[in-house]
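Example record used in the benchmark description.
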Amino acid sequence: MRTLLSLLLDLCAGIFYTIKRLFLKLLEIFLEINILEKGIVLSTVLAFAAVVAPMARYKIFDMYFSINNPAAHYLIGIVLIMLVTIYFPGFIVMIVRVILNALYLLDIIYLQAAHEISKAPYELTAGYYLNIIAPAVYIILALGSGLLYREY
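Model output (structure tokens):
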């Protein structure tokens, strides 16, 4: 029994040590990138809030029902691309980042303009505006990072 407990403690200690080393390596990499790329990493929190927040709500029999973002999976892909391209500086990467975010931004604006979020009458919630703010912040930071810290 004592050897089993000792084995479990060693296993847990090894796992925690590996997690600690991974966290310290990620922190070291984060501290090495420029300030605008750090902004992109931190704005990922805003983007994930935009994914999970409801875009609109409608009322049926004195109860509100929320409508999720039909394009949320695209924003998750954009977040992954924004995080991966941090390690590939250059003009082409900046163009890819800006185009992807602009397409998503146009898609979200079109959803509301064409009343395609839902066929039922609805009112917008904060999640809709988060879905506009997140790609706009990504566009600003990508342009700043690409133009201020050029590496060809």
